[in-house]
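Hi R.,

Here's the chain you asked about this morning:
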Amino acid sequence: MLGQMYKPKGLAGETAQAVLETKDVCAVNVADGCSNNCLYCYNQKGFWRHGRDPATVRLPKESPTRLVAHQIDKLLPNIENMGVFLSFLTDPYLPVVAAETRALIETLLCNHVRVATLSKIDVSWIAQVRDGMTMVSADFDFWHMYEPNTISPIARIVKLTTAKDHGNFVWVSMEPYPPSEIYTQDFEALLHRLSFVDLIVFGKWN
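And here is the predicted structure, written out as tokens:
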């Protein structure tokens, strides 16, 4: 399944449907594992349980672009309202997978498939893509503590603002939002900074 389109279930499926604004959604994981090393990552427990370091990035044996193109060929012409989310098991713009992610986006868009991404590193800079970034806090102390290998919260806001100015649909994932028992911050100030985005998805802290 790694590198191929699949149907996300549960909250993942709901998030993909909300962002892509269609019920017919798939997801593609261009890799498994993430060197962002966010301490709250919902994948970390699963990785440790299976004896894997979550920061180790495992790549598919075959190019996701080729795998997905083959799947699309089988689905044609029934993809008119289809959307694809990138991705749930890694950051699609990690240096090791960024080129493959961009090639995959081009393949999907050429086949008139909606695309959404979620990252803590970069955005697509392609107007047709729904660019998302995780923004749990704009506080630098939180960033250093919980998101050590990502770009800063301010840098994420700048990227989203620039993408928005270029006409992109931009969105923010506040999954998982930390309760005050874990981290105290000014929630209204955070929302004010993000008032320009098209969509915010909220979720609970794991």
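One quick note: The mean pLDDT is 90.

Cheers,
M.
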